[in-house]
Amino acid sequence: MVNTSFDVVVAGCGIAGLSAAVAARQNGATVAVLERSVKEERGGNTRYTEAMLRMKSEDEVADDFESHFAANSGGYLDPSLIGEMAADYENWPRLARSLSFVDPELVGAFSEAAGPTIKWLKSFGLSFDFLPTPFLTTCTTRMLPRGGGLAMVEALAAAAEKMGVTFFYETTAIDLEQSDEGVVTGLVALGPKHKRMTFRAKSVVLACGGFEGNPEMLADYMGPRALNLRPVARGGYYNKGEGIRMALKVGAASCGDFASYHAEPIDPRSGVAEPAIFIFPYGILVNKQGDRFVDEAVGTVDATYETVTRHIYEQSDGIAYVILDAKLNDVPNKQLAIRTDQPPIEGATLAELAGKIGVPAHRLEATVASYNAACRPGTFKPLEVDGLATEGLEPPKSNWARPIDTGPFIAYPIISANVFTFGGLKVNGRAQVVNCNGDPIPGLYAGGEVVGIYYKTYTGATSVLKGAVFGRLAGLDAARSNLAAAGREAVVNG
Predict the structure, then answer these.
(1) What is this structure's pTM?
(2) How far is residue 201's CA from residue 30's CA, in Å, rounded to a whole number?
(3) What is the domain count for the chain?
C-alpha cells in the first residue's frame, strides 16, 4: 500500500473538483486531485457540456433562480418542521438541518456565491457571454463560457498544475478514513493495476460525480427501467457513485431524489456527446405502437423537455419517435435544436416512414389523421408560445399544432439520456457534508453531482454552476480550517 499525505485531497477532476483544488491551493494548502480517467479524458461530465449557467449577468443569477428551486425543493414537507426553520440556520433544530430537502439557506448561499465565482473563474482567462443555445423557445436567461465546459476544465487544470497541485490519474477513491473522534483523516483509493493507496489529509472534498455510470446503483434506486438509460456523454460513464456511498457509510445525510435524474431527449443512434433532439414541439411524439402519449408542447422547450423526456422513458423499451413533415423548414434556426450527427429517417408517405422506424403503419396513419383533424386555424409563431392548440384531442397539443400533411415525412428516434443523477449528500452553505444528526462531519466536504439538491424538475443551467460554486466554497473552507488549526489566517484568495 502506498501512503501519501496532503492538506486537502479532492476526489474528482470536473468543475467541482478543480474549483476545490485551485481555491484550496490559492490559500496555501497542499492539494492532491484523484481522477478515475486518464489525463486526456479528465473533466468528467464538465468536459463534454456547453456549461449553460442560469445567470442574467456575470454578477447575478437569473430572476427565477431561487423560485424554481423553492418550487422543486422536495416532497410533502412537514409544516411543523418548516415552521421551526424560520430562525437563523444556526438556531435550526438538528433534525431540520438533516432533512432531505433543499433548504433556503443552501439556495441563498448558492445564489450569493454565483457572481463571485464567475468573477473568480474569469481570473483564469475564461470569458462568458449569452451565446446561442439549442432552445428555440426559452423562459429564463442563460450565460455560457466561451469554449464550453472543456475550456473550464483546461483553464483550471492548467492553473492547478502551475500552482503545484498533484494529480493522480487512473486513481479512484473508494473509502474514507476517520479518527476515533469521527474526523475524516483521509481516504483509500485504487490506483493503476488495482494498487491500493492511502491518502492522509486534513480535509477531503468529494467531487467525483453521481451514479449515472453505475448500472447496479441505477437499478437499485430507479428500478428495472433504468436499463434503458444511458449517460448523455462519455464523462458520465466514469461516475459510479463511490463518493456518495463512502460518505453515507460514515453517517452522511442524504439529499436529492435518489429515484430520479436529469432527463434529456437524445438520438440513440448517435455516439457524440449530448446528441439532443429539441425539435419535437413542432411535431408529434409516438411510441413503438404508433400512439401519441404526451402533450409535446405545453410551453417553452427549455422548461418542458425534461417532463416530456420522462414520458418517453416510460414507453415500451424507453423509446419514441418524433414525426415531422416538410413544414419544419418554416422554423428558423431549426438546426440548433437538432444536435445529433445522424440524418433524419425519411419517407415519401407515412406508411413508408412507419416501415423504416418499425411502427405499425395503420396505427401511425390513424394517429396522424386524428391529430390533423384536431388542429385548428391560427397563426404559427415558432419562436414563441403561440397558443396554436388542438381541440378535442387527448392528450392535447397546446402550442405549435399544425397538421402533418406535407411530404416528405421525417422522424428521429428519441430516448432519455441520464445527464446526471439527483440523489446525493446533504451539505450546508460552506459545502460541509452534514450527518444524519444535522452536524457537519469534520474534515468532509462535497461539490458537484455528489451534492443532492434536485427534486421533481431540474432547475436548468445550474449543474455546472453548482459544481463551480460549491467546489470553490469547499476548497476555501478546507484551506481556512487547515490554517486555523495551524494558528494562521487565510489569505482569502479564490
Answers:
(1) 0.96
(2) 9
(3) 2
